[in-house]
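re: the backbone from monday

yeah here it is again, tokenized this time
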């Protein structure tokens, strides 16, 4: 995980799912009365000391819109026209801010979302990965969620990304859309993921990622512990969140 949380670039196969409601409608329906909080910093620290902490900062303009997102090395700059997001420039991946909630799938190519729950959270996802021999292997991810509102939603909205996603028509022509937009739309959760179990084609578990959050009274996390267990061992990340005042 680490810096790849934002910088990883996932390739896409053909998507066969659709989602009729807008991202805003799904979020509002699943989180009635949710507080509106905007991320200022996200700090990700491997607890074993194997790497330096990754620090991500979100900056805002005088109108409350996201002006740029930086990890201290690479930055995305958000350009607006008529108060709508017109372009994202800079060294990092376009839509790099949305990569944060896609982190559990960073090592895989996304095939399709097989199922959503009643709130609109993607719960079953088909994944692909090229093995050391060049063969493509298929995996599935099973995702469970808590009832807290997606930590990143209002930050994405302040960046104009939610409006962009609301205008995405997921149909047979969606392959012509930029893959960053398609990925962000398909994987955008309404709530916060607590567990991701990835299995191979034989049904054997290859990795389990458990996230434990520490929430404030308005259900926004101040910290989280992400524990990934796989055949390579156990890795633990400590995540700290701060919000714009």
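seq for it, each position gets an aa:
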């Amino acid at each position: 995980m680490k810096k790849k949380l934002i910088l990883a670039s996932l390739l896409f196969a053909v998507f066969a799912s659709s989602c009729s409601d807008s991202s805003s409608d799904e979020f509002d329906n699943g989180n009635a009365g949710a507080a509106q909080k905007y991320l200022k910093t996200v700090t990700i620290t491997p607890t074993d000391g194997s790497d330096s902490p990754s620090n991500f900062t979100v900056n805002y303009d005088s109108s409350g819109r996201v002006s740029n997102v930086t990890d201290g090395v690479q930055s995305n700059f958000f350009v607006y026209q008529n108060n709508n997001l017109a372009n994202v420039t800079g060294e990092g991946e376009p839509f790099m801010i949305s990569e944060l909630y896609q982190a559990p799938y960073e090592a895989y190519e996304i095939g399709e979302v097989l199922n959503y729950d009643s709130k609109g959270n993607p719960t079953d996802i088909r994944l692909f990965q090229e093995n050391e021999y060049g063969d493509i292997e298929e995996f599935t991810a099973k995702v469970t969620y808590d009832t807290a509102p997606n930590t990143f939603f209002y930050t994405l909205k302040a960046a104009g990304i939610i409006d962009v996603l609301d205008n995405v028509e997921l149909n047979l022509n969606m392959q012509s859309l930029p893959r960053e937009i398609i990925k962000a739309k398909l994987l955008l959760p309404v709530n916060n993921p607590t567990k991701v179990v990835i299995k191979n084609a034989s049904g054997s578990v290859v990795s389990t990622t458990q996230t434990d959050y520490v929430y404030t009274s308005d259900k926004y996390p101040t910290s989280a512990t992400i524990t990934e267990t796989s055949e390579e061992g156990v890795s633990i990340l400590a995540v700290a969140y701060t919000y714009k005042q």
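Residues 4-243 form one domain. The first strand starts at residue 39 and ends at 46.
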